Each structure stands twice: as C-alpha cells, then as structure tokens.
Amino acid sequence: MTKNIVLELKNICKNYSTKTETLEIIKNLNLQIEEGDFISILGQSGSGKTTLLNLIGLLDSPTSGNIYIDNENISVNSSNIDLVRNKKIGFVFQFHYLLPEFTALENVMIPALTQDYSKKKEIEKRALELLKEVGVDHRANHKPTELSGGEKQRVAIARALINNPKILLLDEPTGNLDNETSEKIFNIFKQINSKKRQTIITVTHSRELAEISNKKLFLKKGILSE
Ligand SMILES: Nc1ncnc2c1ncn2[C@@H]1O[C@H](COP(=O)(O)OP(=O)(O)OP(=O)(O)O)[C@@H](O)[C@H]1O
Ligand SMILES: [Mg+2]
C-alpha cells in the first residue's frame, strides 16, 4: 500500500533566544504523518509541545529545517501563508478563542466566509451540520458567553473543521473540562478520525486521549520518540 504523507518535518530545529541564552527547544526533529493518522504528543510541561504544534500549524517558523504539507514545502514567510493555513489546518487551542460578538454558528462560519463570501448559504448549512455532529446545534444562536465550557470547546472543534482541513491540530483540547465532558469530546475525535479518516495531531496530558490515538510520541529534551 502506498503511503499518503500529509505532513513531513525535515530536520526541524527551534531555538528561543533570550537576553542571556539560547534555548534549544526542538532539536533536529524528523516526522512523517500519514493521512488518517491520529497522533498524540506527550511530554512534560515545558518540553516544547505547544512550540512544535505551532510550527506544524504554521503559526511560527522553525529556526532551521523544512515543513511539507501535501508534499509542498511551506514557508511561514510566504505571502499566501494565511490562505494555506486557513485551508490546510484546523486548530483547537486549550482555550477556545471564539469571537465574543458572534453567535456559535457565525463563529463556525467565519473561516469559510473569509475565503468565499458568495457561498454563504452553503457555508451556513455545513456549519449547522458540523454543530450537529459535535452536539451543540441546539445552541447555534448563542453567543460564547451564553455557552458552557464544553459547548464552547465543541463550537471551536466545529470551527476547526469547517474548511475540511488536511490536518486537525489539538492543543490540550479538553484541558479545562471535567472528565465526562472530556470523554464526549474524545469520542468526537475518535469518530471523525475513524469515519472520515481525518488526520489528527493532539498534544495532551490526558491518558484517555492518548489511548484513543493510534500512535503516541514523547517529546523530551527536544527529541521526539515513540
Ligand atoms: N517566546 C518564547 N521565548 C522564550 N522561551 C520560550 C518562548 N515560548 C516558549 N518558551 C520556552 O520554551 C519551552 C517550551 O514551551 P512550550 O510552550 O512549547 O511547552 P509545552 O510542552 O507546551 O508545555 P505545557 O505542557 O506546560 O503547555 C518552555 O520552557 C518555555 O519557557
Ligand atoms: Mg503547551
């Protein structure tokens, strides 16, 4: 069977320089992710997990090395980077970052509307379907302040999926939720991974979430190992 590599990191290094020192957070990291993979990245606090996810999510540039998405070498400095990110990557952060002045439905629609406003009707339909899939369609017209923590996180997941991203990135997606709600959200990830072959990379401290992934990677001292 031929592998379909959606993401490849080649010789990635990431340093942070402060006034007094240079911190080597990621050291010559190589990684290939296949379509449909569900990867969890574990590691101690401060080990560089968010740093790595931000590199993969094209939110930050590596100190050296290359990132390929769909076999295309992507530079964060290229002029169309916002478009690439918007089309290829769905990001769910530990905190939802929903826009407070918009409803749940509008929050889900926005990343697609900014690409093609003329498709508003279709986008609205798809956004409603996604809200249904994650179980918050009954709150579509609520603003973020009128939603519970778990509901907000579900809306953020629907928003991350609206543009059919190649890769869904999750940074502690249930970090601030209770166990029961977390479990429901894990099930959503499991479903979209198995039914739709959605590629998922998650950073987590949660054993349960790591258990449902199909590959666990550990980040320690800048080095990633299985
Ligand atoms: N902009 C920055 N400048 C300097 N150092 C930074 C910067 N951002 C992060 N760091 C340092 O890099 C290290 C890795 O940070 P990162 O946020 O990636 O850790 P993490 O593994 O996600 O931790 P946690 O589990 O606590 O979220 C930390 O020691 C942090 O202090
Ligand atoms: Mg982090």
TrEMBL record:
GO biological process, one term: protein localization to outer membrane
Span of domain ABC transporter: 7-226
Family annotation (PANTHER family): ALPHA-D-RIBOSE 1-METHYLPHOSPHONATE 5-TRIPHOSPHATE SYNTHASE SUBUNIT PHNL, LIPOPROTEIN-RELEASING SYSTEM ATP-BINDING PROTEIN LOLD
Superkingdom to which the source organism belongs: Bacteria
Family: Belongs to the ABC transporter superfamily.
UniProt protein name: Putative lipoprotein releasing system, ATP-binding protein
Example of a GO MF term: ATP binding
PROSITE patterns in UniProt: ABC_TRANSPORTER_1 (PS00211), ABC_TRANSPORTER_2 (PS50893)
Keywords: ATP-binding, Cell membrane, Lipoprotein, Membrane, Nucleotide-binding, Translocase, Transport
